[in-house]
Specification:
Elements: H1 3-24, E1 27-42, E2 53-57, E3 62-70, E4 76-85, E5 97-108, E6 111-119, H2 121-124, E7 148-156, E8 163-170, E9 181-189, E10 198-208, E11 211-222, E12 225-236, E13 242-252, E14 257-266, E15 276-286, E16 291-301, E17 306-317
Amino acid sequence: MTKTTHTRILLLSIGCLATFSHTAFATDYTVYGKAEVQIATTDTGIMRYVKEGTQIEAPYSRIGIKGAHKLNEYLTAVFKYEVQVKGFEEDDTQEPFTARNTYLGLKGAFGEVVVGRNDTRFKYSEGKLDNFNETQADIAQVIAGQDRLGDTISYTSNSWHNTQFSFTYAPKDDNKDNKAGYAATFIYGDRNLKNTPYYISLSRVDSLNNIKANRLAGVYKFEQLQLGVLYQHSESVDGTKSGNGYVLSASYTLDKWVPKIQFAKDDSALRQQTDATQWTTGLDYVFDKQTTAYLLYTDLDLDENTDSSVALGLKYKF
């Protein structure tokens, strides 16, 4: 028997075992993730997510498994276990993983309820607004409320006539603010921009991660052009800080090229310690649905400091 034949038999055996384990327990699951590498040069290092100087980063690379197990004709168990993978970077070899969305729950005609670590439904409301999500130009650089919290209960309704309601609740004993907190979001349209070319969200967060805030956000896609807008009023739980935040974003698809621009401003001093303004421009080259190369430049202005960063990156989703 040749080495090639041995290899084919081994691969066939592994495939059969994988098929058996996948179906014997009636569980539908997917292994997924994102591998990303970025070379960034940053001016002063006061910007979040990047350091001063020239660095090789792996911004928010991750791996996870998610799935569903049908319990009966009414209920399905759902789960997700996801970690950020930082082992690519020399500084993070001792702690190569950090927690991301990790939960267990049930779904049915009522919608979906999950318990564990999850994006708050306030963060969920951004949809496709952020053109530079998970980079140094992420709207979380200046806008408060972009939180992923553990020990929460999240409810998301099924979509009804393009309308969806979702809710996050954190019990007092598990909340950082030492009081029960919640976030609630109404969405009209499709936040993924697949079923409709638009969505509008109205959100409220109260006593989660030391903020109270109201948010109105929307995205509209017309052929190759996509526009996004966000307005938010925020204040600290103790009432000592408050202010308004704004985001404007735009992108245009030219075959595989996608030029992008984004403006974000906030004067609540909740995310940064002072008023903050950030301008960002970038260019993506989309090889396919999984692979994107990008170039971005971002500038952050605070009351007494400024910072800028230029980055070249490659992102692969699987």
